[in-house]
Amino acid sequence: MQYAPRFSIYAPLRLLALMALCITTFTTTAYADHDGQVHDHDTDIAHSEQSLVTPVNVATSTQVSTSNISTATSTSSGDAIQQFVAGDFSKRQAMLSGWPGSVESLDSLVEFIANDELYQGNGGQTYLLNADDQLFTYPDKKETDNWPSDLSQITLTNALRSALIFGQAKVKLASDKPAQRLQAVEILADNIDQVDPAIITTAAANEDSAKVQKALTALQARIDFKNGDLPTQIAAVNLLADSDNPQVLVDIESALAADNLDTSLKAALIDAESSVSRRIEISTWTGHIFTGMSTASILLLAALGLAITFGLLGVINMAHGELIMIGAYTTYMVQNFFQAYMPDMAGWYLLAAIPAAFLVSAVIGMIIERIVIRPLYGRELETLLATFGVSLILMQLVRMIFGAQNVEVSNVAWLSGAYQVSSSLVLPYNRIAIIGFTVIIVALLVYLLNKTRFGLFIRAVTQNRQMARAVGIPSARIDMMAFGLGSGLAGMAGCALAQVGNVGPDLGQTYIIDTFLVVVVGGVGQVWGAVLAALGLGVSGTILEIGIGAVLAKIVLLVLVILFIQKRPQGLFALKGRFVE
């Protein structure tokens, strides 16, 4: 008989480290007037709106801003935000109407004011005060303990708030980035009653982006529909029929409710209402399917490790959910480490948290396999009870170390926000990243199981343990390393979950049942079966929740799984091997 070469314990360790390295590589409001003047509130608003709706030539607005910069620089020091804080009411209003700084600085000003972070010291200095009562100097953003004796918050009156809205739109319309100009159109659309149509006409004449041009055309049609004569309104309604903007549907429905409506206009409104409603419904269901796919990706990440350990060892690991929880808490610890010791790189902590979560969960999983599971091989009931006890121990340890309350894991800046496909369809970046991350993990796992020596040994032990031992494969070591691989995958699932949900001691219990359902429906030890089962359960569960609610959806889904298992006990893909024989 020809014997296979001895398997070295260092080989799977190298493979685990290589997988972690690959993952890291691929995861690529009171207002105080400082001049002592008292302003009439209504006059301020009227003056602000009158100055903001005056047509502005987008092509020359950059030159106007440049002249404003030179004027402001000659009268004040510091960047635009510092000048705004140090200025009186009139100067702030003038700055917002013609912002002298960059688009990014104006966005920062909006963010600071929206988060109640912008303050002024008694000497006119600019400060940032966060939610944890930490005071930072601006613009260097260094924490200081030297608090001014008179620290006042920068807030906006209605007049300044209106000026800020339209000032932000003007600056973005003059940007050379299509995304910024598209944001400007959205700002104007939210304040459509105060927009001068000449601004839209001028902007459309100078626009070279098809997407922005389409948005400007739709905004112009909404204005024409509100203010135009009958032929103009009919033409605008026909144009708006191709929209999926919910506000357009509201405008159409409001118009249909009016009395003495012209017959031709009413017919156009009815056709437009049907078209817009259908488009909105398509976008809504597309969003639901996307949400289901992101849920399926999370389930798949959690189930892949269980599929390996259950398929290889036949062990029902009730502590698998707690390994997911450990991965999430490892992410939390890495985040705190970066914030404390590498604050300049805190926004990139997730790239280090992914391999860290994998390695920590893998090591803990191998320890559990060595101490708890190995003496109980072949005794399924005892291993189920033992791993259930391990899960209780791990949950209690986490409560003792971190407390019973949820901990905060912040989203990294480059995964914040969303990609707007259309007016009624927005896809969050963090969920897009989870789907992409899951695809990468599945590809790496398939490569590991089918193209490497370690994967060959796993498949051999899974199909026929006795024959694998006979040809020299150390099945005990393979069991430990495969259990570590499955546990590491659970840790990465916890890392992904930390970006979309709460992190607490009971995190694993939320997903353990669904994870077992994915493994059973997909087939024991079958990666592609787990992929299809996760997609089916994730998408169908999301759709059922929309129709009948979360509780009934869980019940219906469980009944369907039970019926499926009765008809096909081996799952979607049957594994021919020692369990069958």
Give the averaged pLDDT, no decimals.
76
Order of helices and strands: HHHHHHEEEEHHHHHHHHHHEEHHHHHHH
Shape: globular
Number of strands: 6
Largest sheet entry: 4 strands, antiparallel
Strand order of the largest sheet: 3-2-1-4
Instruction: Decide which structural class fits the backbone.
Output: mainly alpha
Q: Which regions contain 5 or more consecutive residues with pLDDT less than 50?
A: 1-77, 577-581
What is the count of DSSP helices, taking H or I runs of 4+ residues? 23
Distance between the termini: 23 Å
Radius of gyration: 30 Å
Q: What share of residues are in beta strands?
A: under 5%
Helix content: 55-70%
Care to describe what's here?
- The chain is mainly alpha-helical.
- 68% of the residues lie in helices and 4% in strands.
- The protein contains 23 helices and 6 strands.
- The chain has helices spanning 10-26, 41-52, 58-75, 80-86, 89-97, 103-114, 158-173, 178-190, 197-205, 210-227, 230-240, 246-256, 263-313, 320-341, 349-373, 380-402, 429-451, 453-463, 465-470, 475-497, 507-522, 527-548, 550-567, and strands at 118-120, 126-129, 135-137, 152-153, 418-422, 425-428.
- The strands form 2 sheets. Strands 3-2-1-4 form a 4-stranded antiparallel β-sheet. A two-stranded antiparallel ribbon has the order 5-6.
- A hairpin with a 2-residue loop joins strand 5 and strand 6.
- Helix 1 packs antiparallel against helix 15 (349-373) and helix 13 crosses helix 21 (507-522).
- The longest helix has 51 residues, at 263-313.
- Residues 1-77 and 577-581 have low confidence and may be disordered.
